[in-house]
Amino acid sequence: MGEWKENKLSEFIILGNGKERPRTEGFIPVFGGNGILGYCDNSNYDGETIIIGRVGAYCGSVYYQNVPVWISDNALAAKPKKGNSAKFFYYYLKKLDLNSYAEGSSHPLITQTLLNSIDISIPSDIKTQTAIAEVLSSLDDKIDLLNRQNKTLEQIAETLFRQWFVESSSSGEYVRLGEFVETINGVSYKSSDLNPSKIAMVSLKSFDRNGGFRTDGFKEYTGKFKENQIVNEGDLIVAHTDITQEAEVIGNPALVLGHPNYDKMVYSMDVVKVVPKKHDMSVVFFYYLMKTREFKGHCEGNANGSTVLHLSKNAIPTFEFLKPDVKRVKEFSEHATQIRNKIHLNIHQIRALSDFRDTLLPKLMSGEVRVER
Question: How close are the terminal C-alpha atoms of the chain, in Å?
Fold first, then answer.
């Protein structure tokens, strides 16, 4: 298996600075400290590149790319030396939790000097490095496949909804959403209520900016709540507040996903729960209605605030849409429920694979678990 070699990180990788992002648009990803910022028509790094967040709350975040990229001045680039495996060092740096090395509290920073001085212990044999990277990559590849499958399934359901209830609707009659649903406000809480608990709080962190529900966004909660402020897997919630600059979250719907670590879930005051008033109108129908660009535009038009956006309490009830045929709603709901069940199954598989990878990662990187070359 070869020996494990101890040395400074600088012995194995070459670090480089990023540059201010170009203003031109294109198809080359621009990376900052928290992943992709956008796309441009030029690159400053090519081939296998490790990207490390340099400054801010996300400094120390680690990404891997094997395509041309532009790395902004909020990130650093790392390239392996002497034939070492770039993928191995990507995983190794993730294991190190570089954010814990950051200097400064109010404005955390990671420098080349700091990174170069870190002591590491790795396999000296490059074939062993490659074997370890392949094990971890195989898990990430399965996770990526399931994520892409979920994206396709979601697009199918959204397209079907639009065809049936927006583009091909013969109703001609507009109705208000408030006739069909009620909204229930979430829990008003203090920071002192956030303590280790088997009760999870769903908050804005539970909303993925690209759509959907994030199971890594829970806060643990020990405060008071009402019975109607409990949410279960499959319940529909909508973001009522937004702190992003581009209003990326406000008005976004999500279907709640449970987590085995928690016995109960409640939701914060930044979120509302949407409950159908009529049994012939399903939660999944309203979820896809709220995923339309028409609903998003309505919410943006009914939001106020400068630093923090707040959705008007009348925003959801006053949204107007074409009155749907009840039989068509039932048929759509059956199709969409099958799709959502498959998506949920994939999400549970993704969670299991991610947990296994995260458990295996430090064991492989420390040599506690060895792989055959």
Answer: 8
Residues 193 and 310 reside in one and the same domain: yes
Answer for the pair 253, 237: CB distance below 8 angstroms, yes or no. yes
Comparing CA positions, the residue from 36, 240, 2, 226 lying closest to residue 130 is 2
Strand partners for 50: 64, 78
Please state, in angstroms and as integers, the Cα–Cα distance from residue 373 to each residue in 5, 12, 132, following that order.
18, 21, 9
User: What is the spatial distance between Cα 100 and Cα 96, in angstroms, rounded to a whole number?
Assistant: 8
| CA-to-CA dists, residue 259 to 103, 231, 306, 321, angstroms | 34, 12, 34, 34
Q: Quick check: is 161 in a domain? A: no
Total domains present in the chain: 3
Q: Are residues 337 and 309 in the same domain?
A: no
Secondary structure tally for the chain: helices H, strands E: 7, 22
Task: With residue 285 as reference, give the H or E element that holds it.
Answer: helix 283-290
Domain assignment of residue 158, yes or no = no
- Sole residue written with tokens 């966004």: 217
Considering the domain architecture, whether residues 132 and 196 belong to the same structural domain is answered as no
Q: How far apart are CA 312 and CA 299, in angstroms?
A: 8
Burial code of 212-238, b = ≥16 C-beta within 10 A, e = fewer? bbebebbbebebebeeebebeebbbbb
**Distance (Å) of CA 144 to CA 42, 149, 258, 354:** 26, 9, 21, 11
pLDDT in tens, 181-226: 999 999 999 999 999 999 999 999 999 877 789 888 899 999 999 9
Query: Looking at the domain assignment, is residue 160 inside a domain?
Result: no
Assess whether 245 and 144 both reside in one domain: no
Residue ranges making up the domain that contains 221? 172-323
Residue 315 shares a structural domain with residue 183: yes
Query: Do 45 and 107 belong together in one domain?
Result: yes
Q: What is the pTM of this model?
A: 0.84
